[in-house]
């Protein structure tokens, strides 16, 4: 399987660095362990992997290559946000039962042998407590887990007020998964190899200051007042400045300043594959909750590979610079650098 990583890197126009090569070797070993266990139906499940490191170092790319090359029918790859949306919906049906968490995990995963969590991060203490129960159910079922993250396990739920609540889950992760750091010197999102395939997300534009002329040059007609619409999201109304086929146009303060959740963003991403978000301020001047919602929105749209046009009042580095910003702001900035800023 190690050859699969080398071939995929060549096809993408780069060579594996030392950190990626070490992670690829460990992933290849896990692949041999998982397929060998399937073949002989013997022994405990192999240790999973927790692959972490700075943004843009190839963590998700490595696990995607591994997933595609792994000849295992009972596998599933899911973004962390997506899994939790599904889990909460299923858990609600079983919540009156004593083993509701176990039943929800069993319903979601069935006979899944290998589960991939991409972008594993925990900031909400409520989610953190439930995640501990979910992971316990996964490991009790003998499911092997592979996760990617920008944080080491000990760095999850970093808020010192709540961190101690997650320490038992951190110990569970460290006992159940081998920790692999991918921290090479190159940020592959910023320094994209020439000739590599461009994502749909990366075809979006960062428009500053977003004059009507700039918008029209990007193929965007500014919305009129009579295009405003109320969209139902989870039983609540969210205001859009325009809805045009698969495109939705929002104002930053109306979308991120409202009590929208990541689950709401996922539901909207189910309906629209092209987005315009206008009125992006300097995040240091926005309240912390709005800035965090914006970071969550970028996560969702990037992982759904939806096209995003951002209309901002300041250059990207200034808009996402300053103090009191979301903990994941470096990941957000790395992703937004994929947008065309010409």
UniProtKB/TrEMBL annotation:
Organism field: Kitasatospora purpeofusca
What keyword terms does UniProt attach to this protein? ATP-binding, Cell cycle, Cell division, Nucleotide-binding
UniProt xrefs under InterPro entries: ATPase_AFG1-like, P-loop_NTPase
Please report the name of this protein according to its UniProt entry.
Cell division protein ZapE
Name its GO BP terms in alphabetical order: cell division
Q: Which Pfam families match?
A: AFG1_ATPase
**Is-annotated flag, keyword Cell division?**
yes
Top-level taxon of the source organism = Bacteria
């Amino acid at each position: 399987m190690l050859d699969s990583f080398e071939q995929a890197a060549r096809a993408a126009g780069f060579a594996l660095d030392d950190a990626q090569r070490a992670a690829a070797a460990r992933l290849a070993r896990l692949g041999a362990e998982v397929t060998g266990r399937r073949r002989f139906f013997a022994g405990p499940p192999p240790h999973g992997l927790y692959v972490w490191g700075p943004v843009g170092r190839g963590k998700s790319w490595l696990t995607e290559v591994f997933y595609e090359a792994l000849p295992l029918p009972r596998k599933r790859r899911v973004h962390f946000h997506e899994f939790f949306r599904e889990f909460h919906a299923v858990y609600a049906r079983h919540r009156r039962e004593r083993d509701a968490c176990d039943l929800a995990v069993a319903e979601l995963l069935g006979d899944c042998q290998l589960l991939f969590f991409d972008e594993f991060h925990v900031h909400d203490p409520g989610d953190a407590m439930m995640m501990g129960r979910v992971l316990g159910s996964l490991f009790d079922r003998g499911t092997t887990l592979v996760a990617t993250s920008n944080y080491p396990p000990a760095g999850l739920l970093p808020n010192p007020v709540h961190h101690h609540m997650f320490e038992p889950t951190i110990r569970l992760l460290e006992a159940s998964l081998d920790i692999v750091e991918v921290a090479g010197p190159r940020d592959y999102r910023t320094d994209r190899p020439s000739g590599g395939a461009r994502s749909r997300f990366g075809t979006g534009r960062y428009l500053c200051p977003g004059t009507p002329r700039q918008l029209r040059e990007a193929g965007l007609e500014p919305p009129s007042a009579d295009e405003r619409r109320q969209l139902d999201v989870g039983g609540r109304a969210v205001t859009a400045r325009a809805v045009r086929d698969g495109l939705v146009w929002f104002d930053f303060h109306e979308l991120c300043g409202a009590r929208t959740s990541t689950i709401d963003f996922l539901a909207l991403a189910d309906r629209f594959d092209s987005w315009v978000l206008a009125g992006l301020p300097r995040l240091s001047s926005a309240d912390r909750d709005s800035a965090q919602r914006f970071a969550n929105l970028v996560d969702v749209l990037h992982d759904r590979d939806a096209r995003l046009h951002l209309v901002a009042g300041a250059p990207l580095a200034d808009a996402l610079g300053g103090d009191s910003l979301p903990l994941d702001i470096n990941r957000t900035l790395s992703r937004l650098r994929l947008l065309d800023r010409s």
